[in-house]
């Protein structure tokens, strides 16, 4: 499918459909006249295999209690093996209503109130909230930013772990909003630090299927031939890949028997939710038949990002468009043009854009904005045009 065919078939109007992105602007930004470039979902209908599978469910008309079928587990295992060279076993899988819920369970099950949890900022803001809202101590280490690319500072990470007696590290891989697809070597280094200090790792890999420009996603499970599995819980889902956030389905992958036993024992008092049949059905159908759709979508995203980078580079050469090796959510540093205290009035008042502000992801990132590239190319052009009028 060409990029144009993809746009003709899947681009859709979301305003007036109770979408958070477009219909909650007033609630979230205090203005409803904004062009929505925030929040991580898309203006595209999901793939046909998912739509067809959901229609069959609707026609059956029963939404009673459900289970994950053999076919579900097979579809997930095949996807992980085919696309990420990662063998999984169905006995390792547990379910949650979302990746953030899954992270919350990991925090609750494996740490105590007052324990320190580490995040690498800037990072997806629900990581911050999940730690703080559960009465744990948040320890932030900034990623190093150089020449439009973020890297991990292992020394600072180790120092923070030791000084704060960190118990849990919430890794984001690929990293939202740093846009990095961590290499196996980088992952090996940070996981080795965790290993030295007995830190459990929760790796959120929800963006695993969005990698660009030859970058290769390595599941934490596979790093060093699997040598960190005894301290690792992976969280992922089909919900970013196929735009299914509202179907409320995600999984935890716990390959270590001891961790799994603890999780199973402790989760009972915290989560008694049954599975979402629509979430299961959609994820399975995406894994089975969504590959062509995903590849065409990635072309749209990558072209949007190239446009953003080229146009801003031409018109605002001092703006830093960070590398987008993965995710569809690049960060742009506008501090050379806009005083960070005036960013909101520039972005909302002058450009009339809704974006995710840098300080939402980390206190030192005021003056950055995160823009969503999984959208109509004409909206990206419009947004970039508004920003370049600075
Ligand atoms: C890194 C990361 N984790 C989790 C989520 C949300 O996952 P869920 O909707 O399944 O809770 C997002 C959404 O943007 C994300 O970027």
Which ligands accompany this protein?
A: pyridoxal-5'-phosphate
CATH domain class of the largest domain: Alpha Beta
**Biggest pleated-sheet summary:** 7 strands, mixed
Q: Name the helix and strand elements from N-terminus to C-terminus, one letter apiece.
A: HHHEHHEHEHEEEHEHEEEHHHEEHEEHEH
* Number of beta strands: 15
- What is the typical, i.e. mean, pLDDT? 97
Q: Which superfamily, in CATH terms, is the homologous superfamily of the largest domain?
A: Type I PLP-dependent aspartate aminotransferase-like (Major domain)
Sheet/helix structural class: alpha/beta
Shape designation = globular
As laid out across the biggest beta sheet, the strand order is 2-10-9-8-7-3-4
Please count the helical segments: 15
Fraction in helix: 40-55%
End-to-end span in angstroms? 37 Å
* Low-pLDDT stretches: none
Please indicate the count of domains. Answer: 2
């Amino acid at each position: 499918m060409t990029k144009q065919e993809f746009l003709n078939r899947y681009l859709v109007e979301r305003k007036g459909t109770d979408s958070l992105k477009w219909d909650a602007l007033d609630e979230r930004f205090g203005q409803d006249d904004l062009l929505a470039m925030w929040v991580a979902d898309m203006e595209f209908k999901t793939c046909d295999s998912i739509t067809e599978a959901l229609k069959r469910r609707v026609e059956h008309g029963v939404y009673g209690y459900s289970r994950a079928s053999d076919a579900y587990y097979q579809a997930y295992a095949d996807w992980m093996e085919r696309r990420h060279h990662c063998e999984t076993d169905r006995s390792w899988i547990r379910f949650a209503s979302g990746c953030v819920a899954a992270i919350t369970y990991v925090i609750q099950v494996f740490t105590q109130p007052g324990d320190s949890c580490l995040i690498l900022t800037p990072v997806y803001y629900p990581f911050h909230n999940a730690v703080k809202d559960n009465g744990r101590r948040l320890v932030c280490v900034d990623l190093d930013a150089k020449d439009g690319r973020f890297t991990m500072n292992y020394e600072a990470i180790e120092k923070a772990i030791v000084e704060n007696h960190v118990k849990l590290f919430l890794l984001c891989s690929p990293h939202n909003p740093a846009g990095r697809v961590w290499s196996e070597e980088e992952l090996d280094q940070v996981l080795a630090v965790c290993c030295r200090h007995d830190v459990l790792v929760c790796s959120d890999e929800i963006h695993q299927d969005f990698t660009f420009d030859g970058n290769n996603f390595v599941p934490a499970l596979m790093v060093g031939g699997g040598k960190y599995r005894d301290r690792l819980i992976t969280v992922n889902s089909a919900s970013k890949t196929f735009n299914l956030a509202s179907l409320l389905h995600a999984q935890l992958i716990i390959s270590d028997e001891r961790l799994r036993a603890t999780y199973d024992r402790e989760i009972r008092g915290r989560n008694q939710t049954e599975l979402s049949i629509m979430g299961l059905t959609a994820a399975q159908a995406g894994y089975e038949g969504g590959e062509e759709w995903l590849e065409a979508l990635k072309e749209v995203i990558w072209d949007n990002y190239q446009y953003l980078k080229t146009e801003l580079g031409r018109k605002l050469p001092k703006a830093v468009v960070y590398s987008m090796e993965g995710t569809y959510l690049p960060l742009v540093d506008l501090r050379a043009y806009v005083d960070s205290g005036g960013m909101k009035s520039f972005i909302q008042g002058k450009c009339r854009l809704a974006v995710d502000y840098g300080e939402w992801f980390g206190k030192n990132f005021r003056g950055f904005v995160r823009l969503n590239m999984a959208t109509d190319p004409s909206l990206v052009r419009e947004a970039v045009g508004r920003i370049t009028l600075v």
